[in-house]
Amino acid sequence: MDSVKSDSLLSLLNTFSEIGKVQPAGFTRKVYDDQWIRGQLEYADAAKRFGLNVFMDQMGNVFAANTADLNDQAVILTGSHMDTVEHGGLYDGLYGDLASLVAIGDLFTTMGSSTVPLVAVSFSEEEGSRFETTFSGSKFATDQFDRTNLALLDEQGTDFATAREAAVKTLNDVIQMRSQRLHVKEYLELHIEQGPVLEAHGVEVGVVSGITGQMRLLITVNGKANHAGTTPMDMRDDALQTANAVMNSIYKALHQFTDLRFTIGKLNVFPNVTNVIPGKVVFSLDMRDLDQAVLANALAQVRSICAHRAIDIDITTNVQPSRMAPELIATISQSAAELNLSQTAISSGAGHDAQVISYQIPTGMIFVPSVGGVSHSPREFTKSKDLANGLAVLSTTLKKLAY
Amino acid sequence: MDSVKSDSLLSLLNTFSEIGKVQPAGFTRKVYDDQWIRGQLEYADAAKRFGLNVFMDQMGNVFAANTADLNDQAVILTGSHMDTVEHGGLYDGLYGDLASLVAIGDLFTTMGSSTVPLVAVSFSEEEGSRFETTFSGSKFATDQFDRTNLALLDEQGTDFATAREAAVKTLNDVIQMRSQRLHVKEYLELHIEQGPVLEAHGVEVGVVSGITGQMRLLITVNGKANHAGTTPMDMRDDALQTANAVMNSIYKALHQFTDLRFTIGKLNVFPNVTNVIPGKVVFSLDMRDLDQAVLANALAQVRSICAHRAIDIDITTNVQPSRMAPELIATISQSAAELNLSQTAISSGAGHDAQVISYQIPTGMIFVPSVGGVSHSPREFTKSKDLANGLAVLSTTLKKLAY
Q1: A355 contacts in B (CB within 8 Å)?
Q2: Which fold has domain A213-319?
Q3: Global ipTM
Q4: Measured in whole angstroms, how far is the alpha carbon of residue B100 from the centre of its chain?
Q5: CATH fold match for the domains A3-211+322-402 and A213-319
Q6: Mutant choice from B194, B214, B227 vs A, greatest count of A C-beta within 10 A
Q7: CATH code for the structural domain at B3-211+322-402
Q8: What is the pLDDT of residues B2-57, one digit of tens each?
């Protein structure tokens, strides 16, 4: 393992451990806020120290290329995002963000220009924690951004367009604007797993096969609220008792699928009073699988369970699964093997910029273990050895693809 | 049916339909508030118009006796309560309150003094909707009131003692205080059913056999919150999935009891987010039965279902069942029969002053139908014919007992 590279990465992470730090613990850098601006400026400074060519786009995505003269050449892009959830950890987004910069900077320092230009990116936003839209940075970069989102308001009533304009103006004082969209031939992303699989199996590197599609339902069970003491059992229409039977059937039916992940995470009872028979229950169902046909089949089973009752089903989210590019999966796997790191194919149940980008561009993704599988929490942690492993796999892969 | 009596009652109810009226609908007379004071004063005025002897106690219970010289004679007491829940209906409490006054007043007018003195009572509070204590009026009158409740605060931060003192002082300007506790030999209460049974079976009068005991549990199921996308199904400890199985078993086990009424009315999931596996679920279980042994057996079954898991059970309420006095049940039943009214034995699943009083004194209770079983709601309604029927049964019963 190259200790110079991993020292650079740890030093950068240390610098960022003060940017967006919140009490009592964790980090909050919501897109376009002051700490986010500080982060993108720090990223640009670090890129300049590596001698990279720094530029940005109208969305506030910051790029660092290993050539000053890109024009419209096809490039290999690698990176992640600068924003965090509220009270998030240090590693989600930022690890891949900084590791990409270090990998390209180090390759440039040691090997000079590449045959295919390499560009690191620090995407503006992926988490959706300020405005009700996710992946706006990578969507903009790949021409998938829906401009109606510019009218979205944050909790303080500031709209996306206004927040973006002010932040981009500040960044633009020191970072040049490139109006032309990059021509990206391949995208790579390094990320902490945010789940417990690699750690539990003692595997050092996850070669991501795909990112699961996600279907979210909101299921409403209607009954009749009534007095818990005076209403005989045979004269009740108890929405929670019905919901409980429905949930029981859903759990049973969905457990039959091999890989499907499903969660009833949210459930609200109305009026939710001890001595009142529930009149209405609303619960969510989150289902994820790499295979869209499995999701469709699962939905059909849920619909069948909910038929013939006073139950409504709303589909609130329906994101298609994404597949990583086979040639990039192979190259990442080969890199891990050459580095003598244990590896496994793994699917991602969480969304990533790589998911959105893969709809347009061949994409590869590398995971490293998360201690306890914890993420979106100040307790999020990945060991230095694992951080270095991921960086080495990314660097080796980039070298194979670009030099 | 005696139309004079029922006209008096309807006229009084009409007067009260302006006392505590709130927007958009319903009535709010919380104990000791201005509208409650107005109500007790109006009650005292009506009693005086009947020529009854009006007095009160330190709690603000207002009494009306058919003799000026009670001393410590054993009396028959009948009445209900003046307070309402927030946005309650016209009939809960007030119907029995005013009907008792009319019955005693009318008997006094037509038949003069009775062998056993009759006393109507308008209890101060039964609903517990201002302070976290219920039945304080009837508990005080029967020496069961726990004085530590005087320190309880309402939502505005006023304590029970202060609120009581001010209201009682105002009432005392026009109603004489009697410091000596009444010697009550029997208590009768007329009330709307607050449930759907009488209406559904087309029966005119319910002769209450008892008031169900009530056991309330709070059941906490502990699991481990985690990411819904990244946590494999076999590495989860989903508190809602466990709770669902537990609830399913509870529903099945408790449905085996013939008369037990049970309700899971309140259920909260933590953190209650669509894409987070529930880490904790807390739900209530309300169980009611006339037989304490049935409640104990049901509790044992719930404990057994919840054994061997990370589940905690708290008993938050444990009220003993109460039985109405057999001789009063017989007299009420005979009265209804003489009046050619259809009748049925019925248990009360809701609490009443009669419940508290029955622990000390032989008690009888009469129900009349509630349209749709609706109560504690502005939609609460009982037809005039049913109001008159209940009054007639009460009046006939009092006549049998006292003259």
Answers
A1: none
A2: Alpha-Beta Plaits (3.30.70)
A3: 0.85
A4: 16
A5: no
A6: B227
A7: 3.40.630.10
A8: 667 899 999 999 999 999 999 999 999 999 999 999 999 999 999 999 999 999 99
